[in-house]
Amino acid sequence: MASYKESDAWIFVHVPDVFDHYGEYVLGQIRLLLDACEMNDCFLYEEWYMTDDVHPYSERKVYTKETKNEWFSYKKEMEQMVCHGSAAIYYQMPKTKKKMEIFFTVNRSNKYTNPIIKNERMVEIQIPKAVAKQIGMETLLIQMRDLCHRIHATYAFMDLVPFMQRSIYHDTFRYWGKNNVSIDPETRIPGIHWLQFLSEKMVSNTDTLENIAANAPCTKAIVDREGLIPGVWLQLSNNLWKEPPPIYYTYRKYFEKSLYELVLSEAAKCLPERDVLLQYLPLSQEEREQMMAIRTQLPWYSKYYMT
Fold first, then answer.
1. H or E element in which residue 59 lies
2. Residues contacting 7, CB < 8 A, separation 6+
3. Does residue 124 have a pLDDT over 60?
4. Domain spans, the chain
């Protein structure tokens, strides 16, 4: 895994359920996002993989600058058939070739496991640091907001790959939360990330959107009522690639009524390969000591940490 400062950026967008013409909207908005991020001097080609319940394998398509218009002819077929897909966009950077990757779900599959939980749809984007810097963070954030508006997202975040979560059901506060199965996921904040879009419903236990934008401990706050889902965008620091500042804990306390109540004994079971989630989880010193006391008693702890 890359170091914290060199990790890829990760965008996650959550849609609770499909609606009429969802495939058209999500594919169209992904196309707009890619066009905005194309970087003509660096762009090499796009590689798309589509999976559906009809064909026994993923279909691969490649588009260059010269053939990219062919994508629009293929889009109609994708809207109707595809269950999930992915795209890799290749760029020639000064020292090496880099790729931005997108994964998205469209229709419910009867044959495959994605989307894996209920009717959740998602769009996930992994962007190398060098590519994100070249595109420009402001451009990425604008495209992320437009995507959320277009596909009626109720939750979204940008963070680094070590903190990636592939479902609203798997984010840290939801996954390790008290009574998590019995709580409607649309009514609680599932985790804490560098940049988040939180629906009005998710933060209603804390305050109004306008009051949150005025009072939440963060660097930037924007009330967003442009799309179908009103909400607020909150950014916790100026630089994604600097380690989370102490404000993360203050942010957690501010939204305490809107977050799940963490069960430390569950968080302590986090496997070693995901230690980074615990390392940067916004805990008090007392909570961290309690969790480590539990953790050291787990059967596998000495095997990984004491040898």
1. strand 59-63
2. 1, 129, 160, 161, 162, 241
3. yes
4. 15-153, 166-307
